[in-house]
Amino acid sequence: MQTTLKSNVTFSGAGLHTGAPVMLVLRPAPANNGIVFRRVDIAGDNALTAVWDNVAVSPLNTRLTNSAGVTVSTIEHLMAALAGTGVHNVVVDIDGPEVPIMDGSAAAFVRGIVGAGLTRLTAPLYAIEILSDVIVEDGPAMAMLSPATSLQIDFDIDFADAAIGRQAKTLNMANGVFVRELCDSRTFCRSSDVDAMRANGLALGGTLENAVVVDGGQVLSPGGLRHSDEAVRHKMLDALGDLYTAGAPILGRYTGVRAGHAMTNRLLQALFAQPDAWRMTRCDAKIAARLPGVGVSKADLFAVA
Asked: What is the pTM of this model?
């Protein structure tokens, strides 16, 4: 069955790129609503459904846009939290153009959602079952969806900075794995990238407290890393959030090699351009038990930093 929140959940903070303060409220929504953002600071056409064909290509984040030109950016951490806790329907009221960065991970969103709890709705839940391989490539970067009985994420990154280097990880996202293994992993960047972004009017809200900043072999953020492979874990977090813009949970294996937001969106475009590569599958109890978020409880939060 589909789910929604039992009660409102409120978050506040600054946007990573704008630095502007913003308030965000998650509100329960009816069955088949999906994930819908509303820019409450804008009158008129202010609703944006979080689906792949409303995503504007960006290498730095995932940004939604509607036909009126209204946008909401940096949605990927919140989308990952919604996917990883099994929320299918919610209205996201936000009073600015960018989701607050919080600590650079999805942990605060997860705590709020799990604390509020979920309501099961009577409407059936459908998942997108991958039937054949779909792949997109760009030089050494690649993203692929292939058949699997649950959502699995396999990611490989390779950075010149010794503090990151080559990292690879594979996880089955069932049974609360996202909450325990990924949700506290923070966004990361090189110190030189921060300087370049700020020179271009970006990362104005970025600090050493809401991102892992590295310089060669050094981790500049206080307290160091939460996981030795925190960088690849965060890339997996991003992938889960971006995949949730498919409009439903995915039953399949995602493989990413040096992939980012734009490439994952290209992968979804390629998927839906091939009708024989997928089908909508009604989730019985056996299938639902393999979806991210099913069975997540407050006990899972003890594993989160």
From this structure: 0.94
